[in-house]
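Quick illustration, no need to memorize.
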Amino acid sequence: MGHEDYAYIYLEDNDVPRLAEYLGLSEREFKNEYTTMDDGDLVLKMDQPDCPLLDGRRCSVYDARPGQCRTFPFWEEALESKTAWQRLGTFCPGVDQGELHTLSTIRRNLADRQRD
């Protein structure tokens, strides 16, 4: 499948220690093996067809996944229009599956998460 348009996973301050611990690595080891810089932002290295933390189609660090992954697919650019949401559905098989959430609930949850 590949990550095509979703080429960057930006790491928040608390992502690195959580992921490093989960993988049994020091923060330095995690950064050396899994990260790079993009315009001053720390990101996962995406130098292969899929995210380096995937094991087949499953996230190998699901319980410790980065904040950006925790909020996917509810990103602002995907919520800006029905067309954007439908376009995301061509990439993400989970779109419009499972429990439905109102847009106001999604926005409130995202705002709450940013305050944490």
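The longest strand covers residues 35-38.
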